[in-house]
Amino acid sequence: KNEVEQSPQNLTAQEGEFITINCSYSVGISALHWLQQHPGGGIVSLFMLSSGKKKHGRLIATINIQEKHSSLHITASHPRDSAVYICAVLRSGGSNYKLTFGKGTLLTVNP
Amino acid sequence: KAGVTQTPRYLIKTRGQQVTLSCSPISGHRSVSWYQQTPGQGLQFLFEYFSETQRNKGNFPGRFSGRQFSNSRSEMNVSTLELGDSALYLCASAWDRGNTEAFFGQGTRLTVV
Question: Are B23 and B105 in contact (CB under 8 A)?
Fold first, then answer.
């Protein structure tokens, strides 16, 4: 079992819909990242969370440390939101810092 | 402020050759990490460098190596290239280690033929 699991793997929505992408992890973490990757490869960091909730424009990210779960929400989705969304966790403990990634969620928003 | 710059963007190499990829972090950032992305394995951690020292290494063979210079720029090298090394190689920089936001470059797409 992967340390970081995302669901769904693929998501198709109509423009304007509310989107939720989930991330569950099985290890102790010091932070969780949500990343966005468009075709062509470049990755953009959307959020880094260690507790609670963050909001940036139409994007909201939440994390529940006790339940080892995070969600990324997109309100009023738009075709330009179409991308792969990747959850990554930074494990806690020791001095070895590395990100462990989920497999990603491919989001397609149709006009 | 300039972002993370990776060069080259695209590279085609022949099996058995070696390759060097470069990453220039955001000014002031001292931590550089490298990742490999393939369709089968997704994103996997390669190395982390901080203050010119490799602090952490992922589960990759010794053909994969890297270094960091005094200006925080980093290079990674892959020797004796194999077809399976074809991937997108991404680097990310952060101002410090651990719990700080990472900024990713556009990546270098390496194709081994």
Answer: yes
